[in-house]
Amino acid sequence: MKLSNVIKKYRTNNNLTIEELANRCSLSKGYISMLENNFKQHGRRKNITPSIDAIKKLSFGMQMDFDYLLSCIDGEVSLKENDVMEMPIEFNDYFPLHYSMNLSAGTLEELLDIEPDAVVYVPIKFQIMKNRLHAFKVNGTSMNNVIEDGSVVITEDVSHLEAIKDGTIVVALLDGLATVKRLYVKENQITLMPDSSDKSHLPIIIDMNLKQITIIGRVVWHMNPDDINKTY
Q1: Which residues contact 43 (CB under 8 A, 6 or more apart)?
Q2: Does the N terminus or the C terminus of the chain have fewer Cβ atoms within 10 A?
């Protein structure tokens, strides 16, 4: 069975529009449409070759086992492990979130209320929580294994620490400085753990009885510098 047939059958069986499926898969509506229509791109005869990453997103969005989904694809489709297809961003699949590019220090109110001077387009699936979202630009390499220096991170407000699982990436405010780290909580102790190739970055351990820390939010999405440069 061709991938186009798999996608169409899944959409039909689940009464989904192309846009709804695209949101589930974190792919653009235009890309899903081209996949469903036998990989034909306007003005080209050659089929579009999906990347392994795209297939992984499809398998997640359609709640199918990755290997099973691959087995449904016939030999006409050649999957590429490393090639990433360049797709123009479709802004109807995203919504704007404004933020300040020069943001690193201040009180919580100053960090959240500063006049924005930039905009990032966030996948539409997050729009339902828009009122709880904030955007911050990352400066530094303490999380470069997962979030590159210069990336823009999107955080969601959290009501209390108990709602955050250990290892979740958060933006925290400590001593008037905002920092992005993995969060671990044990009784009255908080550890902000770097995730970096630079081993000079050390964990920050806070005794909550002695020092105040504010968790601005958990990171739900980020855009790396290469994508920012291509898009904006």
Answers
A1: none
A2: N
Comparing C-alpha atoms, which of 81, 82, 112, 84 is closest to residue 99?
A: 112
pLDDT in tens, the chain (232 residues): 677 888 888 888 888 888 888 888 888 887 788 788 765 444 444 456 677 778 888 888 887 777 667 666 554 444 444 333 333 444 457 778 887 665 554 455 555 666 666 788 888 888 878 888 988 888 889 999 999 998 999 999 987 787 789 999 999 988 888 899 999 999 899 999 999 999 999 999 999 999 989 898 999 999 887 765 655 4
Does the pTM surpass 0.85? The reply is no
* DSSP conformation class of 120: E
* Whole-angstrom distance, CA of residue 27 vs CA of residue 219: 19
Q: What share of the chain is helix, strand, coil (3-state, %, to 5)?
A: 30, 30, 40
